[in-house]
Design brief:
- The protein has helices spanning about 30-40, 45-50, 65-75, 75-80, 90-95, 120-135, 175-180, 265-275, 320-340, 355, and strands spanning about 1-5, 20, 60-65, 85-90, 110, 115, 135-140, 145-150, 155-160, 160-165, 170, 190-200, 210-215, 220-225, 225-230, 235, 240, 285-295, 300-305, 310-315.
- The strands form 6 sheets. Strands 4-5-3-13-14-15-12-18 form an 8-stranded mixed sheet.
- Helix content is about 25%, strand content about 25%.
- Strand 14 and strand 15 form a beta hairpin.
- The model has no long low-confidence stretch (mean pLDDT about 95).
- Helix 1 crosses helix 9.
- By secondary structure, the chain is an alpha+beta fold.
- It is built from 10 helices and 20 strands.
């Protein structure tokens, strides 16, 4: 097995991720992927021989309105059927989960203690070391410039150093997948959407809180060691909140926005954070960065064999959920590559075919 990386492992979106791991989705397949992935995260050291600290401190969604509470409550029957321990919480419980947080403006919330967060770069190092020991070859600094196709079969790739022949090719290139697959005359509807993250100076009294997310605004915060990391929506030109892209580009992959943190975001974060918790009243941001979400029209990944092109597979377009579902995706796409279909979980709804035929099995949601 050969892994080709155009830069260095982890130099792309992986290094910028918030590292969330959650079960609180509205589609059953997303939840089943989280259950399979979480089992791996719990046993990461046994499976890879490396340490990765999955901090199972929960996800807390908080809502300012009764409409927001109703939306949070809607998937509870699905959680119950799948045995995901999710509960609706009121102001008293919310204040216990995040001591000192302002709750007088809240209508309610939803919490799952099995959710949490990890460290994408630490996990990647563990995955790579385990793969290397198992005989996988990594070539860093070698960009794949095109896929090689003969008739209805992929035969390998062309890189910056030459051609590599292969019976199977897995394209896992995030928001760059559309451009690469187009070299084999395969249309893949994935495009980049810039998101930003900020990190504070140490706030040790909040080092053990859950990932906390404002339902209406999309503002997140969670501990990173003694510091806090913040994720936030984008802001429109008139100062409005944009939790996700307005729609796909006219042609894929569309424009790649510069990976710069817009100047308007830090004042918004400081004000929003200070409103939500007094510990953030004098918030000092010590670092900030932007990275790309790899979006699809229904905010769900494309995973599996490419119809009509034997030997070609895709695992991309995770729309912000790639890290949390990575172990499940790897297992399932390998099952399909080796056995003709994924056996642990049926992932046929993630096929590229759904966009080719207009089938819409999912609800579009960005978080």
């Amino acid at each position: 097995m050969l892994v080709l990386e155009k830069d260095r492992l982890g130099s792309g979106t992986t290094k910028g991720g918030l590292g969330g791991i959650r079960h609180q989705f509205v589609d059953e397949l997303d939840i089943r992927l989280s259950q399979l992935a979480t089992a791996f995260w719990h046993n990461f050291e046994d499976r890879t021989g490396s340490r990765h600290d999955f901090r199972e401190r929960g996800y807390l969604f908080i809502a300012n309105t009764q409409e927001g509470v109703a939306e949070l409550r809607e998937p509870l029957p699905l959680y119950e059927r799948l045995k995901v321990p999710v509960e609706m919480v009121g102001r008293v419980e919310i204040a216990e989960l995040v001591p000192g947080m302002r709750v007088d403006d809240l209508a309610g919330g939803r919490f799952c203690g099995r959710d949490g967060y990890g460290d994408p770069l630490v996990a990647l190092a563990g995955f790579a070391a385990s793969a290397h020991l198992a005989g996988v070859t990594f070539r860093e600094g070698e960009a794949v410039v095109s896929l090689l196709r003969e008739g209805d079969r992929v035969t390998g790739v062309r890189t910056s150093s030459g051609s590599v022949r292969a019976e199977r090719v897995l394209v896992a290139t995030g928001c760059w997948s559309s451009t690469l697959c187009a070299t084999a005359s395969v249309a893949v509807p994935i495009w980049p959407y810039r998101r930003s993250i900020m990190e504070s100076a140490p706030i040790p009294q909040l080092a053990n809180i859950p990932m906390t997310i404002e339902w209406e605004s999309g503002f997140h915060f969670r501990p990173k060691g003694r510091a806090q990391r913040f994720a936030m929506p984008n802001l429109t030109a008139d100062g409005g909140v944009e939790k996700g892209p307005a729609g796909p580009p006219s042609a894929y992959p569309g424009d790649f926005a510069p990976l710069e943190v817009p100047a308007s975001l830090e004042p918004w974060v400081r004000a929003r954070a200070a409103w939500r918790h007094p510990a953030f009243a004098d918030l000092r941001i010590v670092d900030s960065w932007s990275c790309y979400y790899e979006m699809t029209p229904d905010d769900h990944p494309i995973v599996g064999a490419v119809p009509g092109v034997a030997g070609l597979y895709v695992a991309a377009g995770f729309s912000g959920h790639g890290f949390m579902h990575a172990p499940a995706t790897a297992q399932l796409v390998v099952e399909e590559m080796l056995d003709g279909r994924a056996r642990t979980i049926d992932i046929s709804d993630l096929s590229l075919e759904r966009f080719q035929t207009g089938r819409r099995p999912f609800k579009a949601t960005v978080l």
